[in-house]
């Protein structure tokens, strides 16, 4: 969002909303936005727990934590009221469902994929109702790209993994891959139909210092060859 870090514009004075604010990426995003002088509306299912984690940040007087749940229609309305932008970072991190489990595919559809897609649309509906949101930033993952790890000149939309292939081969993290791909696809479709300016930022596997109380999943995965867990 071009105005972040600027000053004096009406958009600069408006708050921005961050979903998944207590997660690995979300917490760093909240901290960065506060340090740049922005007012931040952070969302969490447990606001009291989120405030305990985030209230030590510099600029906390510009931070408001709202209770919101992606499974509840309209629960993001208050958080997005008056916001100039949304950073949608909240996502399921269920990477551990075995493809050999009974009815695995059906349970993935009903328990992960459909809720992830519905939840994303619920958040975007709140953006439309707010009437002030001018930019939506959706966070995707490098795991959704077929070109991940390959030497190609340009990695773009043509490099997205084929959903049928993911269902058939069930690679490591297949549930997460499907949830991000389907949620992103639904988000772009909704944005086009409702006039929202949406951009998808493809994140690599994230590592480094963390602000969360527990070690983030991506850090655990990267350390697993050492920790053997």
TrEMBL record:
Keywords from the UniProt entry: Oxidoreductase
Domain NAD-dependent epimerase/dehydratase: 16-210
Keyword check for Oxidoreductase: yes
Residue ranges crossing the lipid bilayer per the database entry: none
Statement: the UniProt record of this protein carries the keyword Oxidoreductase: yes
Pfam families with a match to the protein in the record: Epimerase
GO molecular function, one term: oxidoreductase activity, acting on the CH-OH group of donors, NAD or NADP as acceptor
Entry protein name: NAD-dependent epimerase/dehydratase domain-containing protein
Organism: Triticum turgidum subsp. durum (Durum wheat)
